[in-house]
Amino acid sequence: MRIVFDRSACVGHNRCYLLAPALFDVDDEGYAVPLVSGTVPAELESAARLAADNCPEFAITLED
Amino acid sequence: MTDWSTDFDHTTDQWAARAPEIWRELRASCPVAHSDRFGGTWLPTRHRDVAAIAHDTEHFTSNSVIVADWRPEVPAPMGFAPPITSDPPFHEFARRLLLPAFAPKAIAVLEEPTRRFCAELLDDLLATGPEVDAAVGYAQHIPVRVIAHLLGVPPEDGDRFRRFIHRILERPGQAGPVDPSDLLTTYLDGVVADHRRAPRDDLVSYLIDLEVDGVRLSDEHVIGTIALLLIAGIDTTWSAIGASLWHLAQHPGDRERLVAEPELMTFAVEEFLRLYAPVTMARIVTRDTEIGGCPVTAGDWVLLPFPAANRDPEEFDDPERFVVDRERNRHAAFGLGIHRCLGSNLARLELRVAVEEWLRRVPDFELSAPESVRWSTGQVRGPRELPVRILGGG
To answer: pLDDT by residue (tens digit) across B181-211?
Structure first.
Protein backbone atom coordinates (compact mmCIF):
# COMPACT_ATOMS: atom_id res chain seq x y z
CA MET A 1 0.00 0.00 0.00
CA ARG A 2 1.15 3.53 -0.91
CA ILE A 3 -0.34 6.88 0.11
CA VAL A 4 -1.07 9.45 -2.57
CA PHE A 5 -1.55 12.91 -1.04
CA ASP A 6 -2.95 15.81 -3.07
CA ARG A 7 -1.50 18.91 -1.40
CA SER A 8 -3.61 21.22 -3.57
CA ALA A 9 -6.81 19.66 -2.18
CA CYS A 10 -5.74 19.85 1.49
CA VAL A 11 -7.34 22.76 3.36
CA GLY A 12 -6.19 21.73 6.81
CA HIS A 13 -9.07 19.76 8.31
CA ASN A 14 -6.37 17.86 10.27
CA ARG A 15 -8.39 14.64 10.37
CA CYS A 16 -5.41 12.59 9.10
CA TYR A 17 -3.13 14.03 11.77
CA LEU A 18 -5.64 13.06 14.47
CA LEU A 19 -6.33 9.56 13.17
CA ALA A 20 -2.91 8.60 11.78
CA PRO A 21 -0.19 10.69 13.46
CA ALA A 22 2.43 8.10 12.48
CA LEU A 23 1.64 8.81 8.82
CA PHE A 24 0.79 12.52 8.80
CA ASP A 25 2.24 15.52 10.59
CA VAL A 26 1.01 19.12 10.17
CA ASP A 27 2.98 22.21 9.25
CA ASP A 28 2.86 25.57 11.07
CA GLU A 29 -0.26 26.57 9.12
CA GLY A 30 -2.04 23.30 9.79
CA TYR A 31 -1.65 21.64 6.39
CA ALA A 32 -0.93 17.92 6.26
CA VAL A 33 2.63 16.66 5.77
CA PRO A 34 2.89 12.98 4.79
CA LEU A 35 5.60 11.17 6.75
CA VAL A 36 5.87 7.95 4.73
CA SER A 37 6.72 8.24 1.05
CA GLY A 38 7.13 4.60 0.05
CA THR A 39 5.26 1.48 1.08
CA VAL A 40 3.12 1.87 4.20
CA PRO A 41 4.32 -0.51 6.94
CA ALA A 42 1.79 -3.31 7.42
CA GLU A 43 0.99 -2.26 10.99
CA LEU A 44 -0.02 1.22 9.77
CA GLU A 45 -2.30 0.11 6.92
CA SER A 46 -5.47 0.43 8.99
CA ALA A 47 -4.43 3.93 10.07
CA ALA A 48 -3.84 4.84 6.42
CA ARG A 49 -7.35 3.63 5.57
CA LEU A 50 -8.80 5.78 8.36
CA ALA A 51 -6.93 8.82 7.09
CA ALA A 52 -8.21 8.29 3.55
CA ASP A 53 -11.79 7.49 4.63
CA ASN A 54 -12.09 10.61 6.78
CA CYS A 55 -10.56 13.31 4.61
CA PRO A 56 -13.46 15.65 3.76
CA GLU A 57 -11.59 16.90 0.68
CA PHE A 58 -10.67 13.47 -0.73
CA ALA A 59 -7.03 14.61 -0.66
CA ILE A 60 -5.74 11.17 0.42
CA THR A 61 -5.97 8.08 -1.75
CA LEU A 62 -4.38 4.67 -1.36
CA GLU A 63 -2.71 2.62 -4.06
CA ASP A 64 -1.90 -1.09 -3.89
CA MET B 1 -49.02 24.25 6.37
CA THR B 2 -45.82 25.82 5.09
CA ASP B 3 -44.41 24.56 1.80
CA TRP B 4 -40.75 24.33 2.77
CA SER B 5 -39.65 23.77 -0.82
CA THR B 6 -40.95 27.15 -2.06
CA ASP B 7 -41.37 29.30 1.06
CA PHE B 8 -38.95 28.23 3.78
CA ASP B 9 -37.83 30.54 6.57
CA HIS B 10 -34.88 29.20 8.55
CA THR B 11 -35.21 31.99 11.14
CA THR B 12 -38.52 30.69 12.59
CA ASP B 13 -39.06 28.48 15.65
CA GLN B 14 -41.22 26.22 13.45
CA TRP B 15 -38.18 25.50 11.26
CA ALA B 16 -35.77 25.15 14.18
CA ALA B 17 -37.97 22.60 15.95
CA ARG B 18 -37.64 20.06 13.14
CA ALA B 19 -34.88 21.15 10.73
CA PRO B 20 -33.34 17.66 10.29
CA GLU B 21 -36.71 16.25 9.17
CA ILE B 22 -37.23 19.16 6.80
CA TRP B 23 -33.80 18.61 5.20
CA ARG B 24 -34.61 14.92 4.76
CA GLU B 25 -38.00 15.64 3.18
CA LEU B 26 -36.52 18.25 0.86
CA ARG B 27 -33.59 16.04 -0.17
CA ALA B 28 -36.07 13.37 -1.29
CA SER B 29 -38.62 15.66 -2.96
CA CYS B 30 -36.99 18.97 -3.94
CA PRO B 31 -33.25 18.90 -3.19
CA VAL B 32 -32.72 22.58 -4.01
CA ALA B 33 -35.44 24.56 -2.21
CA HIS B 34 -36.19 28.25 -2.78
CA SER B 35 -37.76 31.09 -0.85
CA ASP B 36 -38.60 34.63 -1.93
CA ARG B 37 -37.67 35.82 1.54
CA PHE B 38 -34.56 37.95 2.07
CA GLY B 39 -34.70 38.99 -1.59
CA GLY B 40 -34.48 35.42 -2.91
CA THR B 41 -32.72 32.51 -1.18
CA TRP B 42 -31.79 28.98 -2.29
CA LEU B 43 -31.29 25.96 -0.04
CA PRO B 44 -29.44 22.94 -1.47
CA THR B 45 -29.73 19.84 0.74
CA ARG B 46 -27.51 17.27 -1.02
CA HIS B 47 -23.87 16.84 -0.04
CA ARG B 48 -22.68 17.09 -3.63
CA ASP B 49 -24.45 20.42 -4.28
CA VAL B 50 -23.24 21.93 -0.99
CA ALA B 51 -19.68 20.74 -1.75
CA ALA B 52 -19.77 22.12 -5.30
CA ILE B 53 -20.82 25.59 -4.11
CA ALA B 54 -18.29 25.63 -1.26
CA HIS B 55 -15.53 24.91 -3.79
CA ASP B 56 -16.74 27.45 -6.38
CA THR B 57 -15.44 30.96 -5.69
CA GLU B 58 -15.99 31.96 -9.34
CA HIS B 59 -19.78 32.10 -9.14
CA PHE B 60 -20.32 32.62 -5.39
CA THR B 61 -18.98 35.33 -3.09
CA SER B 62 -18.50 35.09 0.68
CA ASN B 63 -19.01 38.85 1.01
CA SER B 64 -21.83 38.14 3.44
CA VAL B 65 -22.27 34.73 5.03
CA ILE B 66 -25.45 35.46 7.00
CA VAL B 67 -28.68 35.65 5.03
CA ALA B 68 -30.60 38.81 5.97
CA ASP B 69 -32.72 41.54 4.43
CA TRP B 70 -29.75 43.81 3.96
CA ARG B 71 -26.74 43.41 1.70
CA PRO B 72 -23.08 43.63 2.77
CA GLU B 73 -21.75 47.11 3.52
CA VAL B 74 -18.01 46.42 3.30
CA PRO B 75 -17.22 45.56 -0.31
CA ALA B 76 -15.46 42.45 -1.64
CA PRO B 77 -12.82 41.17 -1.54
CA MET B 78 -12.36 41.94 2.20
CA GLY B 79 -15.91 42.15 3.57
CA PHE B 80 -16.78 43.03 7.15
CA ALA B 81 -15.04 40.15 8.95
CA PRO B 82 -11.93 38.92 7.11
CA PRO B 83 -11.19 36.21 6.17
CA ILE B 84 -14.65 34.58 6.48
CA THR B 85 -16.24 37.35 4.39
CA SER B 86 -13.30 37.60 1.98
CA ASP B 87 -12.84 36.30 -1.54
CA PRO B 88 -9.64 35.33 -3.39
CA PRO B 89 -7.03 36.58 -3.66
CA PHE B 90 -7.34 38.81 -0.56
CA HIS B 91 -8.80 35.85 1.36
CA GLU B 92 -5.52 33.95 1.37
CA PHE B 93 -3.60 36.98 2.67
CA ALA B 94 -6.05 37.49 5.55
CA ARG B 95 -6.28 33.78 6.38
CA ARG B 96 -2.55 33.12 6.47
CA LEU B 97 -2.13 35.81 9.14
CA LEU B 98 -4.29 33.66 11.41
CA LEU B 99 -3.53 30.05 10.45
CA PRO B 100 -0.47 29.63 12.69
CA ALA B 101 -2.43 30.70 15.79
CA PHE B 102 -5.10 28.08 15.10
CA ALA B 103 -2.95 25.15 13.91
CA PRO B 104 -3.30 21.98 16.01
CA LYS B 105 -0.06 22.31 17.95
CA ALA B 106 -0.74 25.96 18.83
CA ILE B 107 -4.25 25.08 20.01
CA ALA B 108 -3.17 22.04 22.05
CA VAL B 109 -1.82 24.33 24.81
CA LEU B 110 -5.39 25.49 25.46
CA GLU B 111 -6.43 22.02 26.65
CA GLU B 112 -5.40 22.63 30.26
CA PRO B 113 -7.23 25.97 30.70
CA THR B 114 -10.29 24.58 28.86
CA ARG B 115 -10.41 21.59 31.20
CA ARG B 116 -10.12 23.91 34.17
CA PHE B 117 -12.97 26.15 32.93
CA CYS B 118 -15.18 23.07 32.45
CA ALA B 119 -14.36 21.70 35.91
CA GLU B 120 -15.12 25.07 37.55
CA LEU B 121 -18.43 25.35 35.72
CA LEU B 122 -19.38 21.83 36.81
CA ASP B 123 -18.46 22.56 40.44
CA ASP B 124 -20.90 25.49 40.41
CA LEU B 125 -23.60 23.74 38.42
CA LEU B 126 -23.66 20.47 40.34
CA ALA B 127 -23.92 22.36 43.65
CA THR B 128 -27.35 23.59 42.53
CA GLY B 129 -28.99 20.15 42.57
CA PRO B 130 -29.90 17.24 40.36
CA GLU B 131 -32.08 19.33 38.00
CA VAL B 132 -29.88 21.63 35.92
CA ASP B 133 -29.80 23.26 32.50
CA ALA B 134 -26.86 21.82 30.55
CA ALA B 135 -27.00 24.58 27.92
CA VAL B 136 -27.59 27.63 30.14
CA GLY B 137 -25.46 26.42 33.06
CA TYR B 138 -22.62 24.71 31.18
CA ALA B 139 -22.34 24.61 27.36
CA GLN B 140 -22.84 28.33 26.72
CA HIS B 141 -20.09 29.42 29.11
CA ILE B 142 -17.26 27.24 27.84
CA PRO B 143 -16.44 28.94 24.51
CA VAL B 144 -17.02 32.38 26.05
CA ARG B 145 -14.30 31.73 28.62
CA VAL B 146 -11.93 30.20 26.05
CA ILE B 147 -12.37 33.04 23.55
CA ALA B 148 -12.02 35.71 26.26
CA HIS B 149 -8.76 33.98 27.28
CA LEU B 150 -7.56 33.89 23.65
CA LEU B 151 -8.48 37.49 22.82
CA GLY B 152 -7.40 38.95 26.14
CA VAL B 153 -10.74 40.46 27.17
CA PRO B 154 -12.40 40.12 30.61
CA PRO B 155 -14.45 36.93 31.05
CA GLU B 156 -17.17 39.09 32.63
CA ASP B 157 -17.88 40.43 29.12
CA GLY B 158 -19.42 37.06 28.24
CA ASP B 159 -23.02 38.22 28.57
CA ARG B 160 -22.35 41.04 26.13
CA PHE B 161 -20.81 38.59 23.62
CA ARG B 162 -23.91 36.45 23.77
CA ARG B 163 -26.13 39.49 23.21
CA PHE B 164 -24.15 40.57 20.11
CA ILE B 165 -24.30 37.06 18.75
CA HIS B 166 -28.02 36.66 19.34
CA ARG B 167 -28.69 39.86 17.39
CA ILE B 168 -26.34 39.05 14.55
CA LEU B 169 -26.90 35.34 14.06
CA GLU B 170 -30.23 34.24 15.44
CA ARG B 171 -32.53 37.13 14.53
CA PRO B 172 -30.62 39.06 11.88
CA GLY B 173 -32.21 42.46 11.39
CA GLN B 174 -35.09 41.68 13.73
CA ALA B 175 -33.73 43.06 16.98
CA GLY B 176 -35.05 46.61 16.47
CA PRO B 177 -33.03 49.74 17.25
CA VAL B 178 -29.86 49.19 19.26
CA ASP B 179 -28.23 51.76 21.51
CA PRO B 180 -24.94 52.73 19.78
CA SER B 181 -23.02 52.13 23.02
CA ASP B 182 -24.17 48.50 22.88
CA LEU B 183 -23.00 47.81 19.31
CA LEU B 184 -20.39 45.14 18.68
CA THR B 185 -18.24 47.63 16.77
CA THR B 186 -18.33 50.13 19.67
CA TYR B 187 -17.24 47.35 22.03
CA LEU B 188 -14.42 46.30 19.72
CA ASP B 189 -13.18 49.90 19.32
CA GLY B 190 -12.80 49.88 23.10
CA VAL B 191 -10.96 46.54 23.11
CA VAL B 192 -8.50 47.76 20.47
CA ALA B 193 -7.94 51.12 22.25
CA ASP B 194 -7.30 49.26 25.50
CA HIS B 195 -4.75 46.96 23.83
CA ARG B 196 -3.01 49.94 22.17
CA ARG B 197 -2.60 51.52 25.62
CA ALA B 198 -1.47 48.26 27.25
CA PRO B 199 -0.17 45.68 24.77
CA ARG B 200 -0.10 42.06 25.95
CA ASP B 201 0.50 38.54 24.71
CA ASP B 202 -2.82 37.77 23.01
CA LEU B 203 -4.41 37.72 19.56
CA VAL B 204 -5.64 41.32 19.64
CA SER B 205 -2.16 42.71 20.31
CA TYR B 206 -0.77 40.33 17.67
CA LEU B 207 -3.13 41.77 15.03
CA ILE B 208 -2.51 45.39 16.07
CA ASP B 209 1.27 44.96 15.92
CA LEU B 210 1.37 42.86 12.77
CA GLU B 211 3.35 44.31 9.88
CA VAL B 212 3.26 42.78 6.42
CA ASP B 213 5.97 44.18 4.14
CA GLY B 214 6.33 47.09 6.55
CA VAL B 215 2.61 47.93 6.47
CA ARG B 216 0.20 47.58 9.41
CA LEU B 217 -3.28 46.14 8.89
CA SER B 218 -6.08 48.70 8.49
CA ASP B 219 -8.23 49.38 11.56
CA GLU B 220 -11.16 48.01 9.57
CA HIS B 221 -9.30 44.74 9.03
CA VAL B 222 -8.24 44.41 12.68
CA ILE B 223 -11.73 45.17 14.04
CA GLY B 224 -13.38 42.88 11.49
CA THR B 225 -11.11 39.96 12.31
CA ILE B 226 -11.63 40.35 16.06
CA ALA B 227 -15.39 40.49 15.41
CA LEU B 228 -15.07 37.24 13.50
CA LEU B 229 -13.10 35.48 16.24
CA LEU B 230 -15.64 36.60 18.81
CA ILE B 231 -18.78 35.78 16.84
CA ALA B 232 -17.69 32.62 15.08
CA GLY B 233 -16.15 30.85 18.05
CA ILE B 234 -18.91 31.14 20.60
CA ASP B 235 -22.44 30.01 19.83
CA THR B 236 -21.17 27.54 17.24
CA THR B 237 -19.14 25.59 19.80
CA TRP B 238 -21.76 26.10 22.50
CA SER B 239 -24.29 24.58 20.08
CA ALA B 240 -22.13 21.54 19.35
CA ILE B 241 -21.50 20.90 23.06
CA GLY B 242 -25.20 21.32 23.89
CA ALA B 243 -26.37 19.06 21.05
CA SER B 244 -23.87 16.38 22.06
CA LEU B 245 -25.15 16.44 25.66
CA TRP B 246 -28.75 16.38 24.34
CA HIS B 247 -27.84 13.21 22.43
CA LEU B 248 -26.05 11.58 25.37
CA ALA B 249 -28.96 12.37 27.71
CA GLN B 250 -31.14 10.15 25.52
CA HIS B 251 -28.65 7.37 24.68
CA PRO B 252 -27.39 5.54 27.78
CA GLY B 253 -25.62 2.96 25.59
CA ASP B 254 -23.42 5.65 24.03
CA ARG B 255 -22.69 7.14 27.46
CA GLU B 256 -21.65 3.77 28.83
CA ARG B 257 -19.37 3.04 25.90
CA LEU B 258 -17.64 6.42 26.14
CA VAL B 259 -17.09 5.99 29.87
CA ALA B 260 -15.79 2.42 29.43
CA GLU B 261 -13.77 3.04 26.24
CA PRO B 262 -12.48 6.63 26.39
CA GLU B 263 -10.31 5.99 23.31
CA LEU B 264 -13.53 6.04 21.26
CA MET B 265 -13.81 9.77 21.91
CA THR B 266 -11.76 10.58 18.79
CA PHE B 267 -14.48 8.98 16.66
CA ALA B 268 -17.39 10.10 18.83
CA VAL B 269 -16.38 13.77 18.58
CA GLU B 270 -16.44 13.61 14.78
CA GLU B 271 -19.79 11.78 14.87
CA PHE B 272 -21.26 14.48 17.14
CA LEU B 273 -19.93 17.02 14.65
CA ARG B 274 -21.43 15.14 11.71
CA LEU B 275 -24.91 14.53 13.09
CA TYR B 276 -25.23 17.77 15.04
CA ALA B 277 -23.15 20.12 12.89
CA PRO B 278 -24.25 23.55 14.09
CA VAL B 279 -23.24 25.79 11.22
CA THR B 280 -24.98 26.69 7.96
CA MET B 281 -22.99 29.22 5.92
CA ALA B 282 -24.20 31.37 3.03
CA ARG B 283 -22.97 32.81 -0.24
CA ILE B 284 -24.26 35.37 -2.74
CA VAL B 285 -24.36 34.43 -6.43
CA THR B 286 -22.02 36.72 -8.40
CA ARG B 287 -22.50 35.25 -11.89
CA ASP B 288 -25.55 33.36 -13.18
CA THR B 289 -25.02 29.62 -12.86
CA GLU B 290 -26.86 26.53 -11.68
CA ILE B 291 -27.07 24.50 -8.48
CA GLY B 292 -27.93 20.84 -9.01
CA GLY B 293 -29.71 21.78 -12.24
CA CYS B 294 -31.57 24.83 -10.82
CA PRO B 295 -30.66 28.11 -12.52
CA VAL B 296 -29.60 30.81 -10.03
CA THR B 297 -29.13 34.50 -10.73
CA ALA B 298 -26.51 37.02 -9.65
CA GLY B 299 -27.61 38.61 -6.37
CA ASP B 300 -29.47 35.55 -5.04
CA TRP B 301 -28.59 34.23 -1.59
CA VAL B 302 -27.53 30.59 -1.26
CA LEU B 303 -27.51 28.83 2.11
CA LEU B 304 -24.81 26.19 2.60
CA PRO B 305 -26.37 23.79 5.12
CA PHE B 306 -23.40 21.65 6.12
CA PRO B 307 -25.66 19.86 8.66
CA ALA B 308 -27.95 18.75 5.81
CA ALA B 309 -24.97 17.62 3.70
CA ASN B 310 -23.82 15.55 6.68
CA ARG B 311 -27.07 13.56 6.63
CA ASP B 312 -27.08 12.78 2.90
CA PRO B 313 -27.45 9.00 2.35
CA GLU B 314 -25.45 9.31 -0.89
CA GLU B 315 -22.39 10.21 1.18
CA PHE B 316 -22.96 8.50 4.57
CA ASP B 317 -24.21 5.02 5.51
CA ASP B 318 -27.26 5.09 7.75
CA PRO B 319 -26.94 8.89 7.97
CA GLU B 320 -29.66 9.67 10.52
CA ARG B 321 -28.17 7.31 13.10
CA PHE B 322 -25.42 8.21 15.61
CA VAL B 323 -22.67 5.58 15.36
CA VAL B 324 -20.26 6.24 18.22
CA ASP B 325 -17.32 4.53 16.45
CA ARG B 326 -18.14 5.44 12.82
CA GLU B 327 -14.90 4.79 10.94
CA ARG B 328 -15.77 6.37 7.60
CA ASN B 329 -16.84 9.93 8.26
CA ARG B 330 -15.98 12.67 5.79
CA HIS B 331 -18.29 15.15 7.51
CA ALA B 332 -18.43 18.76 6.44
CA ALA B 333 -19.22 20.29 9.84
CA PHE B 334 -16.31 22.71 9.43
CA GLY B 335 -17.18 23.51 5.84
CA LEU B 336 -15.34 22.54 2.70
CA GLY B 337 -12.84 24.33 0.48
CA ILE B 338 -10.81 27.45 1.20
CA HIS B 339 -13.08 28.70 4.00
CA ARG B 340 -12.67 25.58 6.17
CA CYS B 341 -13.40 26.76 9.71
CA LEU B 342 -10.27 28.51 10.95
CA GLY B 343 -11.09 27.55 14.53
CA SER B 344 -11.86 23.88 13.84
CA ASN B 345 -9.03 22.58 16.03
CA LEU B 346 -10.13 24.80 18.90
CA ALA B 347 -13.80 23.81 18.48
CA ARG B 348 -12.88 20.13 18.40
CA LEU B 349 -10.75 20.52 21.54
CA GLU B 350 -13.52 22.33 23.41
CA LEU B 351 -16.15 19.77 22.38
CA ARG B 352 -13.97 16.82 23.41
CA VAL B 353 -12.94 18.31 26.75
CA ALA B 354 -16.47 19.53 27.55
CA VAL B 355 -17.96 16.06 26.94
CA GLU B 356 -15.11 14.27 28.76
CA GLU B 357 -15.39 16.48 31.83
CA TRP B 358 -19.20 16.23 31.85
CA LEU B 359 -19.13 12.41 31.66
CA ARG B 360 -16.41 12.21 34.30
CA ARG B 361 -18.67 14.03 36.77
CA VAL B 362 -22.07 13.08 35.34
CA PRO B 363 -21.93 9.61 33.80
CA ASP B 364 -25.68 9.14 34.10
CA PHE B 365 -28.33 11.74 33.24
CA GLU B 366 -31.56 12.20 31.27
CA LEU B 367 -33.70 14.95 29.79
CA SER B 368 -35.93 16.21 32.59
CA ALA B 369 -38.38 18.05 30.31
CA PRO B 370 -37.90 16.96 26.67
CA GLU B 371 -40.65 19.33 25.49
CA SER B 372 -38.75 22.30 26.98
CA VAL B 373 -35.62 21.78 24.89
CA ARG B 374 -35.48 24.81 22.60
CA TRP B 375 -33.37 24.88 19.44
CA SER B 376 -31.90 28.12 18.14
CA THR B 377 -33.16 29.72 14.94
CA GLY B 378 -31.06 30.97 12.05
CA GLN B 379 -27.80 29.60 10.72
CA VAL B 380 -26.33 28.22 13.95
CA ARG B 381 -28.27 25.27 15.33
CA GLY B 382 -28.10 24.02 18.91
CA PRO B 383 -30.18 23.67 22.07
CA ARG B 384 -30.51 26.99 23.91
CA GLU B 385 -32.45 25.45 26.81
CA LEU B 386 -31.56 21.91 27.85
CA PRO B 387 -33.05 20.83 31.19
CA VAL B 388 -31.51 17.58 32.43
CA ARG B 389 -31.78 15.47 35.56
CA ILE B 390 -28.60 14.00 36.99
CA LEU B 391 -29.09 10.38 38.01
CA GLY B 392 -27.34 8.05 40.44
CA GLY B 393 -26.65 10.63 43.11
CA GLY B 394 -24.39 12.73 40.82
So the answer is: 888 889 999 999 999 999 999 999 999 999 9
The model's pTM: 0.96
CB nearest A12 (choices: B266, B328, B340): B340
Residue B321 Ramachandran class (φ > 0 left, ψ -120 to 50 alpha, else beta): beta
Where residue B89 sits, what CATH number does that domain have? 1.10.630.10
Q: Where are the domains of chain A?
A: 2-63
CB pairs under 8 A between A and B: 53
Residue A26 has its nearest CB partner, among B103, B266, B329, at B103
Between A30-39, B66-75, B286-295, the lowest mean confidence (pLDDT) is in: B66-75
pLDDT above 50: residue B394: no
pLDDT at B71: 82
With a threshold of 0.90, tell me whether the complex ipTM lies above it.
yes
Domain count for chain B: 1
| CATH architecture classification, A2-63 | 2-Layer Sandwich (3.30)
d(CA B62, CA B182): 27
| A58 contacts in chain B (CB < 8 Å) | 330
* Residue-number span of the structural domain to which B66 is assigned: 4-390
**SS3 assignment, position B47:** helix
